[in-house]
Amino acid sequence: MRSSRISDFYKLSIDERLKIIKEFSSLTDEEVETLKNSGGLKLEDADRMIENAIGAFSLPVGIAVNFVINGKDYLIPMAIEEPSVVAGASNAARIAGEGGGFHASSTEPIMIAQVQLVGVQDPNRARAELLSRKEEILKIANEQDPLLLSLGGGAKDIEVRVIDTEMSQMIIVHLLVDTRDAMGPNVVNTMAEAVAPKIREIADAGTVYLRIVSNLAVHRLARAWALFPSKTIGGEDVVDGILYAYAFASADPYRCATHNKGIMNGIAAVVQATANDTRAIEAGAHAFASIHGRYAPLTCWEKNADGDLVGSIEVPVAVGIVGGATRHPQAKVNLKILGVKSSRELGEVLAAVGLAQNLAALRALATVGIQRGHMRLHARNIAAMAGAKGELIDKVAEIIVREKKIRVDRAREVLEKLVAKK
Ligand code: MEV
User: Fold this and answer.
1) Average confidence (pLDDT) over 397-403
2) Which atom of ligand 1 is nearest to the CA of 255?
3) What is the rounded CA–CA span in Å between residue 104 and residue 70?
4) What element of type H or E holds 122?
5) Which domain does 390 fall in, by range?
């Protein structure tokens, strides 16, 4: 049985962890080597990915355990430099597991490409014309990518908006494109450029300027909810503390930015691990959080009739499992570990991780505070800096955390004493 419920995963050595991951995801020896080799991006590949390449940059990849989403077990690779994120997600997922796991769903993977048309005297006439002749526009768009069409994707519909701007009214045409398992910015940008002359022709006036994807992917959403039993998260006071934290974020943009940042700690780490575009996801998430004219939390927290905590989330998930940089050797292995079969499934995982990350942060903030978790890892670094090796790292860290003296000089003293005792 493939189970993501692995207690004390953090206590294992890296090799022991890799052994578990290898079995869980049927990795080959070569794939394990890629993981051990910090991602294995060759310089010549880096040189093909961007301009002026001089090297590659690696980040730690950790595995979030305990995730059960729609009844399926996931081990989730997260690429992130920040301590406590992987532990927080794993811990929250364990609690959600006691409430039945995460329930997730998603829309079709529809991206928006925008075409901007300015200088039309009677934009509402043009809008009506464009909508009535949308098939002509869709036909041109779909000629651009026969492969996508054969996979069931392609341009499906258009939206036409007339917006007021500082310069003048503008017509903004949205091409709605199902990009299937690709994130799809290249294909939608190509389509937008291809349909622009037809849009100008149908509008019979004006000038086309921008033709580009929108990162506010409101038609490519993932949702998840989970029940966190009150008993497991620490009782009624903790539930109420979390609800107060949520109310704070809902009422105050200064808090809300941090609330949503915590959610994105989890989401962006998985997006990074799969070599998707973290900036696109961040931009989409924060714009989506403001969609009703007020910056709001991406999650929602409620108490059910039994006093248990129920969390839910809805986020745009413009991510792919093919194309783009997902060919990155480590991203390929990470996608295999995840075991997602479609971009929609990856989006659902992102929603669940975001929700878990938010629960972990709010629970810590409403109780012991966030520093305790951070300090543990920080203390291990300090212990290593003081010269501790192997088991002694944890021993020294434990003592300096207990003493609240997380300093290299104290770590050295503690280490000397422990070594002398041996
Ligand atoms: C830190 O990276 C994230 C938190 O600040 C999130 C939050 O405050 O909700 C802990």
Assistant:
1) 92
2) 8
3) 6
4) none
5) 372-421
